[in-house]
Amino acid sequence: MPVPFEALIPLGIIVAMTGVTGTLLNYTKRIRHEGKPPRISLDTWDTQMMERDRRLTGSAHRQSVACFLWNILSFYQLNN
């Protein structure tokens, strides 16, 4: 029994909107986490490390060596 072509138009719209919704959700999650995939099932250790990274670098999702280098340079200037 053939499928009437009128049924394919709503099916295409539903598939397209589902794909658009999933893509936008993935995009907004990655933007919120600065380009990295969201972290899943965080335990206490992960939460503490995210808090430490946030205090050191200003961001809970990225680590930076710039703060470390700044601390070394300021310590070197104080001792010389």
UniProtKB/TrEMBL annotation:
Principal location: mitochondrion
InterPro entries: NADH_Ub_cplx-1_asu_su-1
Membrane topology: Single-pass membrane protein
Family: Belongs to the complex I NDUFA1 subunit family.
Function: Accessory subunit of the mitochondrial membrane respiratory chain NADH dehydrogenase (Complex I), that is believed not to be involved in catalysis. Complex I functions in the transfer of electrons from NADH to the respiratory chain. The immediate electron acceptor for the enzyme is believed to be ubiquinone.
Protein keywords: Electron transport, Membrane, Mitochondrion, Mitochondrion inner membrane, Respiratory chain, Transmembrane, Transmembrane helix, Transport
Protein name as annotated: NADH dehydrogenase [ubiquinone] 1 alpha subcomplex subunit 1
Superkingdom field: Eukaryota
